[in-house]
Amino acid sequence: MNIPSNETLSRVYGESEQSSARYADLAKKFEELYGHTEAAFFTAPGRTEIIGNHTDHNGGLVLAGSITLDTIGAAAKTGTNVIRILSEGYRELKIDIDNLSEIKKGKGTTALVAGMIEYVLKTGHKIGGFDCYAKTNVIPAAGVSSSASFEMLVMAIINDFFNDGELPCTEYAKAGQYAENVWWFKSSGLMDQMACAVGGPIMLSFKDPDPVYEKVSFSFADGGYSYVITNTGKGHADLSAEYSEIPDEMKMVARTLGGERLCDVTLEDLLANIDKFDNDRAVLRAIHFFEENRRVREVGEAVAAGDIEKVLVLLKESGDSSYKLLQNVYTNVNPTEQKIALALALTELYLKKIGRGICRIHGGGFAGVIAAVVPTENEQEYVDYMARYFGRENVYPMNIRATGAVRL
Known about the structure:
The chain is α+β, with helices and mostly antiparallel strands. The chain has twelve helices and twelve strands. Strands 1, 2, 3, 4, 5, 6, 7 and 12 form an eight-stranded mixed β-sheet that branches. A four-stranded antiparallel β-sheet has the order 9-10-8-11. Helix 4 packs across helix 5, helix 4 packs across helix 6 and helix 9 runs antiparallel to helix 10. It is globular and about 60 Å long.
């Protein structure tokens, strides 16, 4: 079985030795499990949200990037209407495309895949049976979009095998969002899926039904900084309600002001009608949305001007707003568990000592990951510092990769 070439792997990962071994193991296990002697190989990255925290679901702006951690899969068509996927460390899922109604909605990967299948069929696209063995190094339940990475891998397979590669990234993303909204009952936006599908650093606008995106030239490394995420550990509570309350409260504010989403109204509208609200948190979250959109625009201007220090000032402001206004650093369900707040406090002590860099909540929040931007010469020292508190296996220097969800 031929795995992707070293040239291809170097283009995607910046190296070929480790990634080649990873794909070789993938191919070996795929053949052992499903008996196929030929396979197609796919990759879908995780993502980092650089700025634009919880704005996508209300038609806002985001600067995001795909990361070098990814989900990979070996797959082959079967000529049937049955999809079988085995992800390393999980039980196999098996879905009969003709009998989706037999699958129970709710949590679980089977429901997620069934939701994407239903979207593909409802929108007039094609699908058929295939086998897939997948493995991932995207941190689960930690704000770097392990679910969206898996979703986009599945959509890349469906697009390549059955639709001649004609589906745009927006359809990948909508399928993943549909599955989460309708089959997982989670009020997800489109940012995670778009960043995983497109690849590279991208500026996104979610005001229109089809997200508008533009690839931008941006790198922390070019400015002399490193990007490090720390997985603080998964919270013990089910956080679905906390995640969903953010878009729901923002939309409630928008409806009160005469719109459907906050992109339909303005901060001035809110300030002029603030006496209409008895939900103070919803008002604070709406203020975060409007100010976050401003910051994203200003980051775009700073990136174009090559002003990395201005970018960092705005990222710090964004993180502070998420903490104080959006309020997604810890959950009220278990207020004594504040791993995110602790990681931020520890990082701020370190940054105060060296005099440069910023840190912030990363992704959906409430539990999971923080992001820090530190001078490149301090990267290893910071990794060692955070490893003392959270374990070396949970501190990840990140790179942004250019490749989205594709067949290699």
